[in-house]
Amino acid sequence: MATGFFWDERTFWHAGGNYAATLPLGGLVQPLAAGGLPESAETKRRFKNLMDVTGLSAELDMRSAPAATHEELLRVHPESYLSKFKQTSDNGGGELGHHAPFAQDGYEIATLSAGLATAAVRAVASGELDNAYSLSRPPGHHCEPDKPMGFCLLANIAIAVNAAQAEGRIKRAAILDWDVHHGNGSEAAFYDRDDVLTISLHQEGNYPPTSGKLHDRGTGAGEGFNLNLPLPAGTGHEGYLHAIDTVVIPQIKAFAPDMIIVACGYDCAAPDPLGSMLAIAQTFGDMTARIKQVAGEVCDGKMVVVHEGGYSEVYVPFCGHAVMEALSGSSINAPDPMHKSLTIRQPNPRVVAFQKELIDDLAKELDL
């Protein structure tokens, strides 16, 4: 029994289109020297490399996995979308949604990314591993059943959860998304279902700007099983932990899932170019430790973390290492080289008090 780490070099070969950050090239927008979207292979590769150098990788069960099958994809995505995606990929690539470009073989790489998440969930659900991390790329939490967007081409976590349920490995799952952007794809996949609890902590009004509203609670059988907690820009370490302690953990305990899956985006970290939050590496480690403890209390420790956003090539590796330290229980540490400077930038006590009060008010407004 161990902590699994699912990754594959081929996922690092996914390529985007002609962008400078999130702006399409043309007019007065000049190409960047590095080129392309902020979602690049470097943040993920450097994360794994850091674990190799510190020795943490040697303590993990490092694996790849086969691509998600067509049957597994169809449980979330309609044939019309999958066919169009495959055809476009075979013809050299393109873009089928907002900020979701891909190159030749993009379809195959995306199915491999979903396959890594599916294999991680399957291995933990079966008791083969204690818990696991899936270094999935491209990410998935923005992809709706028939609409890719926000760098996401397939709904990795939704595919994995549906596969585990179809195989009878789990009945109920809780998905916690702490990416800085709203997890609209996971929300859309389970919005009318009561067997999956979806919780999204995100920067209010960031991306997608029109989704992630407080009162979007689900529909039909799923009413009350979707929870959005839009946080104000500038929320830092203490604000995130307060949201986890006072809102997220009680909701997960009340739901009593068979497994907890974390959509782990590192873009709420202070140095990230696509967010305006102030989380630090310790924030991710502490959140992971808290959710791991809850998983031990309600679902025999069954917990899977799936990589989503995070665009600072310098800082993501240290945030990821902190998560893996907490997930695996390893004593190997990668000291955060920005800890002192980012701690100084944390909100002052009066702002922290305001942020905590706001989170409490949001919970009261939802009668949680």
From TrEMBL:
Domain of life: Bacteria
Every Histone deacetylase domain range: 39-326
Coiled-coil intervals, chain numbering: none
Pfam families linked to this entry: Hist_deacetyl
GO biological process terms held by the UniProt record: epigenetic regulation of gene expression
Molecular function as annotated in GO: histone deacetylase activity
Entry-linked InterPro entries: HDACs, His_deacetylse_dom, His_deacetylse_dom_sf, Ureohydrolase_dom_sf
Record-stated family: Belongs to the histone deacetylase family.
Name of the protein in question: Histone deacetylase
Organism: Sulfitobacter donghicola DSW-25 = KCTC 12864 = JCM 14565
